[in-house]
Structures are given as structure tokens and as C-alpha cells.
Amino acid sequence: MNFKRDILLIDLEFSGFDLQKHEILQIAAVLLDKKTLKEKKVFSSFVRSTKWEHRDRESMAVNKISLDMVKDAPSLKEVMRLFDKTFGHNVIQAFYVGFNDKRFLLDAYRKTKTKWQFDYHYFDLWALFYSYLAMKNGLKSKKDFAGFGLEYLIKRFKIKISKNQLHDALVDCRVEAEVLRKVIMKA
Length: 187
Fold this sequence. Notes:
- By secondary structure, the chain is α/β, with parallel strands linked by helices.
- It has one domain (6-186): 2-Layer Sandwich (Nucleotidyltransferase, domain 5), CATH 3.30.420.
- Helices cover 41% and strands 18% of the residues.
- It has a five-stranded mixed beta sheet with strand order 3-2-1-4-5, with helices on both faces.
- The longest helix has 18 residues, at 169-186.
- 31% of the residues are buried.
């Protein structure tokens, strides 16, 4: 395998899906080597909440982030500066069902007046995994064809994590990296 750039898997946890009302609460990323897909660098940080009272209860039930986890965290500006410094921009960004992650990340750059320097190309890992599973007859039920979450991939690819770790942004990035390696190696 020979990707032209290293792959940066990014996952965000946020307090809901409305850019005006909700906010990023955690940013994590794993940089994978373009030739081996081995982990090269990692980043994970909670982000201090400034809109805690506007959080969406359903989103919070999924990500399990508490006020104690974010009240003393670095500001969004500090986190974005560290994130940018950690990886640079000569990477291919990848997200798992990345529509909201990408929107919130772009908005974080705008809000913090940090210049977006990434290439506009990126992977949506869900689409890649969906195609792979469809080719391997791995989509058996109507629910599988409509969509599946990381829980399905963890079970399908026999990845070992405890259930309470799921939806921690860094754990999710590492699960996505493991599935990507398995899919690419079997393709």
C-alpha cells in the first residue's frame, strides 16, 4: 500500500448537532503512516465548555462527557493551536460518518481565527467500510444496509475494547484505525 500522504483520523465529541447552540467537547486524532497504517502520533483533549446549559441530552447520553471532564479543560483556541501544531497539514483527513465532525472542525478553525490549511480532499471511512462489507456479504439485515455504527464494526472485526470506552474520541479513532488496517489488508 502506498498512500501519498499520512492519514489523519479525526473524531470529535460535541454537545449536540447545532453549530449555533452546541460546541465541541473533545477532539482526538490518530496519525497513521501512509505505507504501514501504523500509529505515528496521537492527540486527545477535552475542550472547556462555554455553553454547557445548551447541551443536548441525547448527545450527552452517547458521549458520556460530564461537566467535571470539561470545566477545567483548555479553551477551544488552545486546543486548536495544539491540534494544528501536532500534525501539520500535509495529511489526508479521515472521519467516520464525518459530516458533523467536519462541520464542527471547520467552525472551530473559524471561531479561533486559525487558518484552515488542509487539502479539501478527505475520506469518509464509513463509506469505505460500507463498500467493503457489501462486497464481502457482511451486510445481512435491513439495519446493516441502512447504516451501522462502530459497535457493529467492533463486533464484526473482533476488536477488544470495553463498552464504557466507546464514544471516547481517541478510542473511536483507534477503533477506526484498526478496522481500516483490516479492510485494507484484506482488500
